Amino acid sequence: MNSASAELEHAAVRSGHEPVRPDRLRGVMSRFATGVTVLTVGGEHLHAMTANAFSSVSLDPPSVLCSVGHSAVMHGALTGAGRFAVNILGAHQEPIARHFADKSRTLGAAQFERVDWRSGEHTGAPLLDDSVAWLECELTESHAFGDHTIFIGTVLAAGEGGTGDELLFVNGRFGKPATGS
């Protein structure tokens, strides 16, 4: 158990409550619909990872955050590269989301062989063709907590691409926004 987890457990005990079990938290959080992104880094650290732990942080300075597990290949790749891209996926890109979420896929340049992309002008990170939007970021800060690190990036460039509905993830399934009534 790391020091952050130990502190949370001690706080729960002091308050007279049992700590929330990871499976319980996972179940509750699965009810929160999120967008789906693919984080990418370029150069010698070429790698991609599907992620939904992503959010804007600030408009001034323009910044976003993503949360990456310490054991993920992306953790070392992002730390080593210092720059990254965020590809916001459309509903039609579910196969891409599944591909980059597959831990058994071949890593390195081979993981991009069946995916159309271009190198970001500011980061060299892959910008996936037909994504509904993308951001290029410079790693500004990182905060280790529990079994993840929160990476904060200053947005260097942003753009919109493909059209259509965004890809969502809720209750352990991919989907698209429901049309209004």
TrEMBL record:
Residue ranges that the Swiss-Prot or TrEMBL entry lists as coiled coil: none
Protein's recorded name: Flavin reductase family protein
Cited InterPro entries: Flavin_Rdtase-like_dom (IPR002563), NADH-dep_flavin_reductase (IPR050268), Split_barrel_FMN-bd (IPR012349)
Record organism: Streptomyces massasporeus
Xref: PANTHER family: FLAVIN REDUCTASE, FMN REDUCTASE (NADH) RUTF
SUPFAM superfamilies xrefs: FMN-binding split barrel
Region (Disordered): 1-22
Flavin reductase like domain span: 29-176
GO MF, one example: oxidoreductase activity
EC number in record: 1.-.-.-
Keywords: Oxidoreductase
SMART domains registered for this protein in UniProt: Flavin_Reduct
Pfam families, per database record: Flavin_Reduct
Bias (Basic and acidic residues) ranges: 7-22
